[in-house]
Write a structure and sequence with these properties.
The chain is an alpha+beta fold. The chain has three helices and four strands, in the order βαβααββ. The protein has a domain of about 90 residues: 2-Layer Sandwich (hypothetical protein PF0899 fold).
Length: about 140
């Protein structure tokens, strides 16, 4: 039995105002799901640069409610799990989206029973809110 290597993950970086980055990240995620073809074969990781996030907070950006609303919106996509969020301590782009996926088998599978499709059930994504030392201190 030969094993096929997994395809290279899809990687995008985002920088700028926090809410715009999340909107762009969500749009790119939708495009990646269409490109891959099946949301059940996708795993997500979002890398957040803590120095870049701190700079955005210092510039007046608010982390909440934007982060919670972002998680709520992508929770409707039927992803098999919540995105993994990795907090990076080095400077870089504010956010990096990494989409890992498994290519579809070459044989046509049978259709799943009714109600088994992701659109037919509520998502089970439960992500923890983004918290950290991101409060802007008033002088």
């Amino acid at each position: 039995m030969s094993t096929e290597p997994l395809p290279a993950p899809l990687v995008w970086t985002f920088d700028g105002p926090f809410e715009r980055c999340l909107a762009d990240l969500e749009h790119t995620l939708r495009r990646a799901i269409v490109m891959v073809g099946d949301v059940s074969r996708v795993a997500l990781q979002i890398d957040l640069s803590l120095p870049a996030l701190q700079a955005r907070v210092d510039a007046g950006d608010a982390v909440q409610p934007a982060w919670g609303q972002f998680l709520e919106r992508i929770g409707r996509y039927g992803l098999p799990g919540a995105p993994r969020v990795r907090h990076l301590r080095n400077a870089g782009p504010l956010a990096t989206l990494i989409v890992a996926y498994v290519e579809a088998p070459t044989l046509l599978p049978s259709l799943p029973p009714e109600g088994a499709l992701a659109a037919d059930r509520r998502s089970r994504i439960r992500a923890r809110p983004l918290v950290g030392p991101f409060r802007k201190v008033k002088p």
